Structures are given as C-alpha cells and as structure tokens.
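In the design runs reported in the main text, the only information available to the sequence generator was the tokenized backbone. The following block is the verbatim input for one such run; it is reproduced so that readers can re-run the procedure and compare outputs position by position.
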C-alpha cells in the first residue's frame, strides 16, 4: 500500500513539473515573453524611409534597422525587425570592457547599470548607463533620411583620469 501511495505522489510531482515546464514554454513562445513588442522601443518614419527597433528588457540598447524600398520594409541589419545582440555597443574603461550584448565573452553586461531605459525623443531613441567607475554612457539614435545617426557620449564623473574607448558593432545585411 505504501508503495502505491509513493507511486501516486511521484506521478503527481512529475505532472506538476511537466505542467510547470509547459507553462514556461507557452510563456516563451506565446508572444508574451521576451522578444515581443513589450521588450522593444520602435520608431518608424515612412517619409525618411527608416525603421529603428531598440531592445528594452535585456541586451538593453541593442538594435536593428530597416529601410523602406518600393513600399516595403527591408532589412538593413541582421534579425530585423527585432533587436539583435549582434548589433551592440562596447565601452572600455581602463582594462575593463562593458557591453550591452548578451555575447559578453570577457566583458561585463551593461544591463544592471541602466539609469534611463530606451526612451522615445522627438526624432529618435535615447538611453543611459552609469557604470561602476562613475562613468555615464549615453547612446542616442536619431532618424535621418534612409538611416540612423548614432551618438555615443561618455562622461567621466570621477575626480581622476580614466582610459576610455567605445566600439559600435553593426551586423549588416
């Protein structure tokens, strides 16, 4: 009898695990999980022929671009119309490298340091990070005719000098 009760408990536990796994899969693939419109800031201007999509939930600030050709939106960067971790910003402070890409081999992901998530401006999208070295990193995308102008501003708010560099990696089509 005890064996039968243990078997029933095991079956119930396995069903609960299976149900939990199924719920997680449904969440990820149903359009309510990450990677949907809820995790992007988008800006489109048909008169300028450009569409910008910026990641907002994770890999914050990664992006993709599209352009209007013959009445259709076409890819300018890989993975358009969703943000892509292959199109990203890296910032070096002394010997430490920060990045907003999930592929952060030997680098530090910038997501935990976001102080202003991607926000729509009059003609673009802007965001800010405050890195542990007391360095403010601002990235702004401005829509222009058939493209986007990208501004990167790095401000040393320390009392002493720092070695700083920036790199923008764009995965084009």
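Verbatim output:
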């Amino acid at each position: 009898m005890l064996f039968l009760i243990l078997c029933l408990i095991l079956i119930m536990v396995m069903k609960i695990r299976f149900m939990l796994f199924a719920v997680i899969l449904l969440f990820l693939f149903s359009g309510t999980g990450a990677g949907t419109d809820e995790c992007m800031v988008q800006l489109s201007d048909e008169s300028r022929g450009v569409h910008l999509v910026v990641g907002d939930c994770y890999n914050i600030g990664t992006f993709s671009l599209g352009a209007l050709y013959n009445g259709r939106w076409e890819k300018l960067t890989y993975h358009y119309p969703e943000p892509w971790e292959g199109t990203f910003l890296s910032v070096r402070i002394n010997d430490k490298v920060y990045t907003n890409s999930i592929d952060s081999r030997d680098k530090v992901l910038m997501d935990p340091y976001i102080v202003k998530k991607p926000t729509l401006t009059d003609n673009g999208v802007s965001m800010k990070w405050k890195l542990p070295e007391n360095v403010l990193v601002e990235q702004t995308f401005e829509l222009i005719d058939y493209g986007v102008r990208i501004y990167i501003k790095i401000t040393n708010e320390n009392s002493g000098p720092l070695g700083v560099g920036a790199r923008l990696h764009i995965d084009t089509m």
